Amino acid sequence: MITALDLLIFQWFNSWAGVSFFWDWAILFCATYLLYIVVAAILLIFVLTFLPRFRNYWDQNKELVIVALVSAFVSRFVVTEIIRYFYNRPRPFEIVEGARKLMAHPLGSSFPSGHAALAFAVAATVSFYYPKSSILFFLAAIFIGIGRVSAGIHWPSDILGGALVGVGTAYVLSRFRPHREG
Q1: Which one of 33, 55, 120, 146 has the largest count of C-beta atoms within 10 Å of its C-beta?
Q2: Which residue numbers delimit the Phosphatidic acid phosphatase type 2/haloperoxidase domain (predicted)?
Q3: Are residues 121 and 135 in contact, defined by beta-carbon separation less than 8 angstroms?
Q4: What does R_g of the chain's alpha carbons equal in angstroms?
């Protein structure tokens, strides 16, 4: 079900696509590549632990890395796919006449956004450990969502649904982590 508000917000963001090379590049960067940077930031914490100078860093942040990666995986490849199995929603470029699609993408299964679920799962996990630093992760997740809508791939409610899946999954999985004493 597509609401009038969903359509209105989609059309506004999608109107930025195809306007200029710069905007198309910015939209595609946010819609595609920014997610890699978010995941790379978490993996960087893991990689740094192999350097002698950062050994203590791993001891302090191994929960963050583990919970972030597990939350990202579960939200994107388990919860999102279960929802999509039962609710196959068409993508905007399939049903909105004149929608500007900036990237190749398969049809259907637009709700919830897997990219948003993954990005918001990582951002929420970071917020449990480093609330101030998580602002950057949440901003990245928001820009990923805006990029996906602007590129014609998702409805705004797909992004909201993905955000709820990601944050909810991170919250639930963080409850299973061992609590530090003292």
Answers
A1: 120
A2: 65-174
A3: no
A4: 17
Q: Give the CA dihedral 80, 82, 85, 89, nearest 10 degrees.
A: -30
78 SS3 class: helix
Residues in contact with 24: Cβ distance below 8 Å, sequence separation at least 6, in sequence order? 17, 18, 102
Q: What is the pLDDT of residues 78-94, one digit of tens each?
A: 999 999 999 989 999 99
* Closest to 82 in 3D by CA, of 114, 121, 105, 119: 114
The 10s digit of each residue's pLDDT in 151-180 is: 999 999 999 999 999 999 999 998 886 655
The residue assigned the tokens 């003292």 is 182
Residues in contact with 31: Cβ distance below 8 Å, sequence separation at least 6, in sequence order: 102, 103, 115, 144, 147, 148, 150, 151, 153
Residue 82, CA distances (Å) to 53, 87, 88, 157 in order: 42, 9, 11, 17
Q: How many CB atoms lie within 10 A of CB 98?
A: 8
Structure tokens at 1: 């079900």
Print burial letters for 52-90: b (CB count within 10 Å at least 16), e (below 16): eeeeeeeeebebbbebbbbbbebbbeebbeebbeeeebe
Helix 4-14, helix 134-150: angle, nearest 10? 90
